[in-house]
Amino acid sequence: MVDGTKVMYKIPEGTQTGTKFVIRNKGFKVVNSSAQGDYIFTVNVQTPKRLTKEQRELLVELAKTMNEQPPIKKRGIFG
Questions:
Q1: Closest Cα partner for 24 from 40, 10, 9, 13?
Q2: Residue 42 parent element (H or E)
Q3: Across the strands, what pairs with 21?
Q4: Per-residue confidence (pLDDT) for residue 73, from 0 to 100
């Protein structure tokens, strides 16, 4: 946190990149006041860049069970 302390925060399953969360009263102190602001942070989900053939097949199968389109493998600069 901004004061040097550590806080555990549980990120809900399925949270997408760009989701913002707020921890109340853990931000900077408000100027000319004893009040404390909120700490706001944004989630940045990192996805693997290289997958083995087996890993890719497993992700495709998972996508099918979730009724989502599997990623399309692009070839070259124009796909």
A1: 40
A2: strand 39-42
A3: 41
A4: 61
Residues 1, 65: Cα–Cα separation, whole Å:
39
What amino acid is encoded at 61 in this protein? E
Rounded CA gap, 53 and 58, in Å? 9
| Residues 12-37: tens digit of each pLDDT | 988 999 999 999 999 999 999 999 99
| Number of helices followed by number of strands (H, E) in the chain | 1, 2
Exposure string over 34-63, b if 16+ CB within 10 A, otherwise e = eeeeebeeeeeeeeeeeeeeeeeeeeeeee
